[in-house]
Amino acid sequence: MPKGPRPFVFDECYIPEPNSGCWLWEKSLAAAGYGRIRHGGQRYLAHRYSWTIHRGEIPPGLWVLHKCDTRPCVNPNHLFLGTRDDNAADMAQKGRSRDQHGSKHNMARLTEADVLSIRSDPRLQRVIAAEYGITQSAISQIKRQARWKHL
Question: Are β-strands 23-25 and 42-45 bridged in parallel, bridged antiparallel, or unpaired?
Answer without folding.
Answer: unpaired
